[in-house]
Structure formats: structure tokens, C-alpha cells
Amino acid sequence: MANAEEVTNFVDNLETSLEAVEVFLSQLFTTPLDILLRDLDPLGRAKLEVNVCFAINTLIFVYLRMEGANPKDFPVIAELERVKKYLIKIRQAEGKYKPKMSVDKAAAGRFIKHNLSSNKVTAPLLNFEFLKLKERKALKKLLEWRMNLKSIIEQAQQKRRKMK
Per residue in 122-145, is it b (16+ CB within 10 Å) or e — as a string? Predict the structure, then answer.
């Protein structure tokens, strides 16, 4: 549980954020959109229009949550995802967006296997790994047989101890 100070700080931050949204929206509602867009360059226009759309859809999302409805049952989620794509495009145009790096696992595996196969120490291990994959069922049966043999030997040793 959060203590009273953390809750108070959270409420203060929420209040500050809501005041900032209220100021932003009041400017939008008092000035016609075409006048706001007239003085902006194309990128600025796109940013304003997408941010207004995102703000409206976010408010709808919050309203649905406050009413106890599941926002996933409404098209607002799809609209938010669509608007997020446009936000990413705008960030790309501004040069602020850096796509997340991803690893091609298959290519990395080939690269590692190729480099390790030339190593005299690891090459036999790779061949064993290949055999393990190819003969998985046979190895599993071999391990089961080994475990059974181990338990039979232990039982025989226990019988010998009892006889002595």
C-alpha cells in the first residue's frame, strides 16, 4: 500500500496534468481550428491535428473507464492505435523517432554456428548437438534405460547390504 504522501503527490501531479489539458483544450475551443492551422507549417498542422485527435480519443477512453465500461468493447481502441501510427510518422518526419532494434534469431544462429564450427574445440560439441537434435527419441530412451539401470544397481546393492 502506498503511504499518504505518495498518494498526495500522485493527486497533485494528476491535478497539474489536468490543468494543462484544460488550458490546451480551452485554447482549441476558443479559437477556430482553421485559424490555428493557418499560421503553421505542414508538419505543425499535422502535429496539431493528430494531437487533437489523440486527446479527444484519450478523453473518450477515460470517460468509458470512469463509467465502468470496458473500452476494448468500443472502437476507441482501434482509433487510438491508428492515431499512434500517425504520431510515429510525425516523429519520423521530425527525426525524433528511433525504431526499436530487433534481432533476427535465425541469422544470429547461423552466424554463431559458422564461427564456432571453425573452432577446433567447439566443432565436436556442435556435431554432438546436431546428433542430439536428430536422435532425440533415441537419446531419451537411452537416458531412461540408464536411470532404470541405476535404480536396479542401487536395489541390488541394498539387497547385498541386507544379506551381510
Answer: eeeeeeeeeeeeeeeeeeeeeeee
C-alpha–C-alpha distance, residues 163 and 157, integer Å: 10
Distance separating alpha carbons of residues 146 and 138, to the nearest angstrom: 12
Instruction: Enter the pTM of the model.
Output: 0.49
Query: Can you list the alpha helix ranges (DSSP code H) found in 31-135?
Result: 33-38, 42-66, 76-94, 105-117, 123-134
Note the pLDDT tens digit of each residue in 27-74: 777 888 788 788 888 888 899 889 888 988 988 898 888 888 888 888
The C-alpha angle 27, 30, 31, rounded to 5 degrees, equals 85
Contact call for residues 43 and 90 (beta carbons, < 8 A): yes
